[in-house]
Amino acid sequence: MAGVRRSRNAPVLWVDCGEWTVGVGDAVLVELAGERVLGEVIIPSELLLPVGSLASFGRIVAVGAASPDIAWALRERDDLALAQAHDCIGPATTILGASWSLDVGSLTVRLAGPPAEEAALRRRLGERFRAAIRLDWPVAAVAPAW
Prior knowledge:
The chain has 146 residues and is of the alpha+beta class. It has helices at 68-89, 118-129, and strands at 2-5, 13-16, 27-32, 35-43, 58-63, 95-100, 106-111, 132-136.
């Protein structure tokens, strides 16, 4: 058994680890009622006291960001965030990408360049996603002055 959360403020789901060895912070794909969901291990089995049987809500089917199934789930989640950020911002700002933290507590939005109104953009995205927003853009290379 291990405790897994789908997002930072979600309730803990007790899941069967099967043959998997998991640690705090591991990305896992969990099968719940026939659906596969992405989560993060917050309580590994070695930290659980043997208090009898806990009812499990599902079972772990993949572990680690290197797993193709988890990589696909992360890409799918980030692609959805990118589409929603485009809808929220509109065409005036070029968005290159978006990526969630594993616990879905913060979203990094990569832009083509610095936005005209950074604070307003961060506020609008924060309200839309209900998460901490990090805006990132490439820094122009500066030639040495020698």
